[in-house]
Design brief:
The protein is α/β, with parallel strands linked by helices and 381 residues long. It contains 15 helices and 12 strands.
């Protein structure tokens, strides 16, 4: 069989920021995958253009004009690709932009983008239902669930004692880690407040990641927000701040030092950070939202603890006790999230879009009926 020609946005060049796409495409054996560029798109016809975060410009651009122009340019390139016979497939990582900067532009963008799709992928069954509920346009398109792969083997494992020594954390501390971009929806202030309420001199909170400025990310704005986080933690020597970009070679230092990884997000559908923590065999505390219940069912309640509502001091204290007492041994069970399997499932999703069968079309109809039924049940529950 002739290898499929895939254009991916992104593919390989974001490995330093997030290895997800790199790991997916580097394990894709029966396809020729190219990193998206305008030059490649214009010069070569592809079977599939696989897009991951189409809302990116709505998050990072500093002005409405820039966000509008860049999203329109992306849509024009999609139109060009479709005229050449390329199918457009979207992996639904998010159902909206994280920052909600430009609501009117975003409303227009999603309508325009969804009209141009030929198929989509979600990372969980709940994600499939949520995507069709949020965007009814998807109900007429083939949708496939392909799980997020693990990160095991992407980073080395360092000794816990060495990691704590590097970070200046006491060897006997009970360490809670928050890792990743510090953005409003991730609710880091809520985690800080819950932690500061702990009457436990042996507890430690480590916050590692760069702050994201909703207003555009200028140096002055970023420093202002960084000062705010520092003010929230002032006077508590148990809290260790690393408010900067964490290089790939440092990732294992933070996870190696941790006992518990806490992700107190206000909004969550999927979480690569939760899978990163589990890849380091670190238990995770997450809200019971999005696909987190599915993740808990996959790996077990000894590895993922969920909570309802806001994160409280009592919940955090309970999670620290759970971390110490859970019947946890060996590695977190992530074998079903092997990247070879994830890549093969992604290829099957492409083929489902390129060569739809009557059975596949009937499956779309069945899924739509299930989505409507699930929505009706939720309304009456």
């Amino acid at each position: 069989m002739k290898p499929l020609r895939i254009l991916a946005w992104p593919a390989f060049n974001t490995r330093e920021q997030n290895p997800y796409a790199y790991l997916l495409y580097s394990h894709m054996q029966a396809a020729e995958v190219d990193e998206f560029s305008i030059g490649r798109l214009l010069a070569r016809r592809y079977d599939v253009w696989h897009i991951h975060w189409p809302e990116m410009f709505l998050n990072v651009e500093k002005t409405p004009a820039a966000a509008g122009l860049k999203t329109q340019a992306a849509l024009s390139l999609i139109d060009f690709a479709r005229r050449r016979g390329t199918k457009i497939v979207w992996t639904v990582h998010n159902l909206a932009s994280h920052e909600h900067r430009y609501p009117q532009i975003e409303k227009w963008f999603w309508r325009a983008f969804l009209r141009r799709l030929d198929g989509f992928i979600t990372l969980s069954e709940s994600g499939l239902l949520s995507a069709r509920e949020r965007f009814p346009e998807l109900r007429t398109l083939p949708g496939t669930v392909v799980p997020h792969g693990h990160y095991r083997g992407e980073y080395p494992d360092d000794r816990r004692e060495d990691c704590r020594e590097q970070l200046g954390i006491p060897a006997n501390a009970k360490v809670v880690l928050f890792f990743g971009w510090i953005r409003e929806y991730k609710n880091v202030p809520g985690l800080i407040a819950a932690f500061r309420g702990l009457n436990d001199s042996d507890a430690a909170l480590c916050i590692a990641g760069r702050e994201f400025s909703k207003s555009g990310g200028t140096t002055r704005q970023t420093l202002t927000r960084q000062t705010s986080v520092r003010e929230l933690t002032a006077g508590d020597s148990r809290i260790h701040l690393h408010l900067r970009h964490v290089r790939n070679e440092e990732v294992q230092t933070f996870f190696g030092a941790a006992d518990l990884v806490a992700l107190p997000y206000r909004e969550i559908q999927n979480s690569g950070t939760a899978l990163l923590a589990l890849s380091f065999n670190k238990p995770v505390l997450v809200p019971r939202k999005g696909a987190m219940a599915e993740l808990q069912a996959l790996v077990g309640t000894d590895w993922v603890r969920t909570y309802e509502g806001e994160l409280t001091t009592g919940e955090l204290a309970g999670a620290l006790q759970w971390e110490q007492k859970a019947n946890r041994s060996g590695n977190a069970p992530l074998d079903t999230l092997d990247w070879n399997s994830v890549a093969e499932q992604t290829l099957a999703a492409y083929r489902n879009v390129l060569f739809p069968s009557p059975a596949a079309e009937e499956k779309v109809a069945d899924s739509n009926r299930e989505s409507r039924s699930a929505s009706a049940s939720a309304l009456h529950s």
